[in-house]
Amino acid sequence: MIxxxxxAALPLRCAALxxxxxxxxxxxxxxxxxxxxxxxxxxxxxxxVRGFSLRxxxxxxxxxxxxxxxxxxxxxTDVDGRQNFLDTRLRLSLTAAxxxxxxxxxxxxxxxxxxxxxxASLGTDGVNIETKWLHLEWxxxxxxxxxxxxxxxxxxxxxxxxxxxxAGLRAEYKPFGGDLILLAELIKAVDNSRVDLxxxxxxxxx
Length: 206
Known about the structure:
By secondary structure, the chain is of the alpha+beta class. It has helices at about 10-35, 65-75, and strands at about 40-55, 80-100, 100-115, 130-140, 145-155, 160-175, 180-185.
């Protein structure tokens, strides 16, 4: 028996898209292999465990002494703005590349999991796999052009405007091969075109 939850639907869909894209790349690579240009698959990842001990020095002064004592007696130990916790995170990367022109890049994240919190308490069961990256990159060797489509990391204006993972389409062109860059990008931040007209929990144009 296979059981899934609603929270697992997105990772499962992304995994299906990943498999389909890999099959397309492998199919395209059949001719490339005959030309000594096979599909290169690489794996990588980063694992982190960290601890924090923080205190907000301004919060205690916002409460009068009687209220602070009452909150402490009620078990609310965070009234002093103290935070003492451990968390952990794992990021796994998979890249399938055909030469230097075409690549499928993915990155999945497990966490952040706070020790004692959801998914990291007794039993340690929880759906906490996130899809950070899932995009195709195309860089034709004959042109100073690179294109990207899918889920990827984007930073603009030295992170003053945007520094986050996005879903979009991106094209970058260097007409003179130097520091001058012509950039065209479409980022979809919110989608309101998919609606549930009959309120059954399923979008009608899915």
